[in-house]
Amino acid sequence: MGDTLWDELGKLEKPTLSQLFEADAQRLDKLSTRFEVGEDESAGSIVFDWSKTHLDDAHIAAFEQLAAKMDFAGRRAALFGGEIVNPTEGRAAEHTAQRGVGKEESVALAADYHHRMAAIVEAILRGAMGEVKHVIHIGIGGSALGPALAVDALAREGALVDVHVVSNIDGCALEAAFKACDPATTMIAVASKTFTTIETMTNAHSALEWLKENEVEDPYGRVVALTASPEKAIEWGVDETRILPFSESVGGRYSLWSSIGFPVAMALGWPDFAEFLAGAAAMDEHFRDTDGAANLPLRAAFADQYYTRLRGCQTRAVFAYDERLDLLPDYLQQLEMESNGKSVKADGTPVDGPTAPITWGGVGTDAQHAVFQLLHQGTNLVPVDFIASIAPGHDLDDEHHRILLSNCFAQGAALMAGKASEDPARAYPGDRPSATILLDEISPATFGALIAFHEHRTFANAVLMGINPFDQFGVELGKQIANQIAQGGVRFDPSTEALLATCGII
Ligand code: F6P
């Protein structure tokens, strides 16, 4: 990356947030932007307010130079052009093509796959494959977190079918789904890009056994496979007509838009799923076509780099002030940590600074009564994102939502302003950063744009750090050792052997 630019960035003055607002009357206009999700106003909008971060004109100019030096425009063109942007696995990363933005052939192929998916979803919903009231979606990691979040965010009330997402190999998870479903009206969706993941395949086998034990006629007929490895699904016993494929170039944690989104389409119906894709496409086009800090994901990445690299922040926190988004911190944790938690650059050389911070968070206002103490008075500086919706997700008295949003905005204000006190225990240092993302409402389109924003922010961070965000070799070693344990005959360290022996595993 070359140290000079980072040295220069490090030497820039670091005014406090209050000083930044005092010095620049245009600050809010410059750093708080309303993003229209579609040309038609009814698609809704999202405000991205980065004014309570320490970004100023000087830092932005320097980060724009860094982006130029790291060939941000070239890397972005390679992403949208379907080029190999994941060199360690020799793959493109074509999640945007799922939304209709990308290389022509890939967009056409994704549209074909979606066409097939829409036909199957609509057939199931109109009862052409027998009565279906429940879907048990079995997958893990990228094959589960996205669907679980999207179903929760968009279909908490009024889902067309009752969806249960099961990921953990711990049988408690699957058993809970069984208890909530009637086997005679349940469809099992096996979601696995590779169709080899041990947790998913074990859970899928048990789900099939459950259908058999409950004398469901043609149990295999109640299974759909969502996969980039259709041949493996066929080998496992799924009929070709119930396989919903997607491309190898769609990464696991970026796969919500592909057939992995099947339970979302089942819960919402196809037209809303199409809206969800369109909302993401609007963010894709913005990210593809906008230069410099006006580019919202890139602006957010500038702030991320500022805090991680220049202020030594080891974590970043996300608080959704909306119960419907309570899985968002988990989802972003995988997206950001599995993508950018690396120690080498794309060319294999060691990185010269910290990479992804630890993403954590929760839901407001609950988190205020649990962890906000540290945010306000702890010794760690934690940049915070607040995410909220102007429209509530419930029909109760307006008072609920007024108090919820007031608390959300009060936290950002308090973190920034702080409060002096002669009693040190009661003093708040202030100057603590936050960004706010405010949706008009949580609709399929705004939610799609919100998720795509975070995907592009993650990619922009990777480009600024020179790393490949699309592989995840860090998860392999533990899996290999678990396999060795299953095979037996391998010696481990004394602690591991004692633990295994205590549980009767060896
Ligand atoms: O272990 C990590 C991982 O490879 C994720 O990246 C992926 O989303 C998950 O496992 C599940 O993989 P699959 O979809 O192939 O079952």
Automatic annotation (TrEMBL):
<protein>
    <recommendedName>
        <fullName>Glucose-6-phosphate isomerase</fullName>
        <ecNumber>5.3.1.9</ecNumber>
    </recommendedName>
</protein>
<keyword id="KW-0963">Cytoplasm</keyword>
<feature type="active site">
    <location>
        <position position="369"/>
    </location>
</feature>
<comment type="pathway">
    <text>Carbohydrate degradation; glycolysis; D-glyceraldehyde 3-phosphate and glycerone phosphate from D-glucose: step 2/4.</text>
</comment>
<dbReference type="Pfam" id="PF00342">
    <property type="entry name" value="PGI"/>
</dbReference>
<dbReference type="GO" id="GO:0005829">
    <property type="term" value="C:cytosol"/>
</dbReference>
<dbReference type="GO" id="GO:0006096">
    <property type="term" value="P:glycolytic process"/>
</dbReference>
<comment type="pathway">
    <text>Carbohydrate biosynthesis; gluconeogenesis.</text>
</comment>
<dbReference type="InterPro" id="IPR035476">
    <property type="entry name" value="SIS_PGI_1"/>
</dbReference>
<dbReference type="InterPro" id="IPR023096">
    <property type="entry name" value="G6P_Isomerase_C"/>
</dbReference>
<dbReference type="InterPro" id="IPR001672">
    <property type="entry name" value="G6P_Isomerase"/>
</dbReference>
<comment type="function">
    <text>Catalyzes the reversible isomerization of glucose-6-phosphate to fructose-6-phosphate.</text>
</comment>
<comment type="similarity">
    <text>Belongs to the GPI family.</text>
</comment>
<keyword id="KW-0413">Isomerase</keyword>
<feature type="active site" description="Proton donor">
    <location>
        <position position="338"/>
    </location>
</feature>
<feature type="active site">
    <location>
        <position position="479"/>
    </location>
</feature>
<keyword id="KW-0312">Gluconeogenesis</keyword>
<dbReference type="GO" id="GO:0004347">
    <property type="term" value="F:glucose-6-phosphate isomerase activity"/>
</dbReference>
<dbReference type="InterPro" id="IPR018189">
    <property type="entry name" value="Phosphoglucose_isomerase_CS"/>
</dbReference>
<dbReference type="GO" id="GO:0097367">
    <property type="term" value="F:carbohydrate derivative binding"/>
</dbReference>
<dbReference type="InterPro" id="IPR046348">
    <property type="entry name" value="SIS_dom_sf"/>
</dbReference>
<dbReference type="InterPro" id="IPR035482">
    <property type="entry name" value="SIS_PGI_2"/>
</dbReference>
<keyword id="KW-0324">Glycolysis</keyword>
<dbReference type="GO" id="GO:0051156">
    <property type="term" value="P:glucose 6-phosphate metabolic process"/>
</dbReference>
<dbReference type="GO" id="GO:0006094">
    <property type="term" value="P:gluconeogenesis"/>
</dbReference>
<dbReference type="GO" id="GO:0048029">
    <property type="term" value="F:monosaccharide binding"/>
</dbReference>
